[in-house]
Amino acid sequence: MKRILLCFVFLYAVNNLYAQWVHTSYLINSVDTYVSNVVFTSPNGGYYSDYFIPEESEHYCEYDIYRTDDGWQTFTWVNGGGGNYEAAANIGDLIFLNDSVGYKLVFGIFPYIKKTVDKGHTWSDVPHNVSLYDIYHISYPAEDVGYYLSSPAQIIASYEGDCHLLDFPGEYYGFANISFINDSTGFVFCRDTLNNYVCIRTSDSARTWTGVLNQPNGQFRGIHFPSNNVGYMIAPGGLMYKTTNTGKNWQILPTGVTRNLNSVYFINDSIGYIAGDSGLIMSTNNGGSSWSSEAAGTTFNIKKIYLSDTSNGFFYAGASIFRKSSTGILDTVTGLYAVVTGNYVHLEWTAPSSGGVLGYNVYRNDTLLTTTPVIIPIYDDSLVPNGLQTYCVSAVYGTGESDTVCTDAMITYSIPEEEASVRIYPNPADEVIKIVSPVNFSHIRILNLLGQEVYQYSAPCNNLRILTTGIQAGLYVLQFTLENSTIVRRISIK
Predict the structure, then answer these.
(1) Nearest Cα residue to 110 out of 80, 127, 88, 84
(2) Does position 249 have pLDDT exceeding 90, yes or no?
(3) Which of 259-268, 354-363, 461-470 has the highest mean pLDDT?
(4) Who has the most CB within 10 Å: 193, 383, 391, 453?
(5) SS3 letters for 274-330?
């Protein structure tokens, strides 16, 4: 038995030695857009939601949901909603039980919950026989078994649409989050009448609750059970706790850090990871008795982490996804420089000396410009907006994407104020292109590089969604009339 254990620890150490975290993709590709949820469902699958609120509007909000099936390299738009005034909406919680079945809590005029069973393509109302007017967080431990936090101090238990409204004990308030690990056992983070931050537990489907842990430093941040009995919980200031009896009792674990912990994930009862502020990642192979630091490749606060094994996983930080690669750190490009001519920018760089590069991704202000990696180390960007633009280039390998190398370019080309305020996003586009302007535009056309028209819409409007279904992937020219002028923009369709 000792020989097996030593061999296992050695293999774990070797895997961690050669596994590195590398930047994989950006989730945000337009201004005034923010990520609201990131969900890791499998070694290659996941979802994220974002929402868009223009700076000039207090009454406009819309959301989109995207899916990935290739390890967060590319994304497919699967669902969206919202708009002006009463139609404005945003995703509160996004939960997936596997790659196909999921739930979304939408905040609009009133909150509502919808379910998908086909990877987000279609959504149906979740039935309920009580009011959902005051719900603000949901948890689904299994399909059609849900629990909803509801103001001021209530919880709704839903079994295939049959809902029961239950009260929390009077000594608790400020309910912040809810997490059920099976049909009957769950946890809620809240406060007690002594102003302690508390974790309370139920084992009878939310009928009764018992306080199991309290501390004064701040609200608990996350909880994860790799098995029915063993679980881990994190809190601000580097605090971490462990249970071996389904959460009835908890013991504090030493982490050696004081930074806030934001996410915890265990592959099994012994091997796990914690992530936190300022790029903190730590791993353990002995159930949290000791921890080893890992280089995250970023100083952003890490919000969520997921591992399928010790060599493969993802985390979300700074509107980006990072992937754990077992091939080591990937060489970057060198010598990147920009030449500006009017509102055109010419980029050149030197390929990594290590070889093995499949192509290059080019970003402007964190927006991916290349729908597919360019093969040669040259890129020309046209019709660039005025102001300081930051260009970044990464090398793409068969095992992932290298860190980016960046340079700045200042554009001072004179363009009308109305044209500068038009927003066209996302670009590159997947299934929809959105055009938003403070004034009406009209005579919208999309032309391919041969000058052939593939789309046209003539009516005046100031907010247009163009579905790209039926338009082949590639580069196109978008034309429209604005204030008696013809505006031309380059767009890319995936």
Answers:
(1) 88
(2) yes
(3) 259-268
(4) 391
(5) EEEHHHEEEEECCCCCCCEECCCCCCCCEEEEEEEECCEEEEEECCEEEEEECCCCC
In the sheet that holds 378-381, the strands lie side by side as 334-341, 344-350, 378-381
pLDDT in tens, 419-435: 667 888 888 888 889 99
Q: Work out the average pLDDT over 462-474.
A: 87
Q: Are 49 and 36 in contact (CB under 8 A)?
A: yes
Backbone angles phi, psi at 317, to 5 degrees: -160, 140
Could you give the CA distance from residue 236 to residue 262 in angstroms, rounded to a whole number?
A: 8
- Report whether the peptide linkage leading into residue 152 is cis, meaning its omega lies within 30 degrees of zero: yes
Buried b (16+ CB within 10 A) or exposed e, 443-464: ebbbbeeeeeeebeeeeeeebb
pTM of the model: 0.66
Residues 6+ apart with CB under 8 A from 453: 445, 446, 447
Comparing 390 with 490, the larger pLDDT belongs to: 390
- Residue 319: closest CA among 79, 25, 22, 69: 25
What are the backbone angles phi and psi of residue 13, rounded to the nearest 5°? -65, -40
Facing residues of 395 across strands? 360
Tell me the two tokens of residue 131. 């009011």
Q: C-alpha 224: how far from its chain's center?
A: 19
- CB contact at 8 A, 145 and 183: yes
Give the pair of three-digit tokens for residue 9: 């620890």
Which of 14-23, 123-132, 352-361 has the largest mean confidence?
123-132
Distance CA 448, CA 383 (A): 17
HEC-encoded secondary structure of 128-156: CCCCCCCEEEEEEEECCEEEEEECCCEEE
Q: Tell me the torsion sign for CA atoms 226, 66, 380, 399.
A: positive
How far is it, in rounded angstroms, from Cα 258 to Cα 236?
Answer: 8
φ, ψ at 7 (rounded to 5°): -65, -40
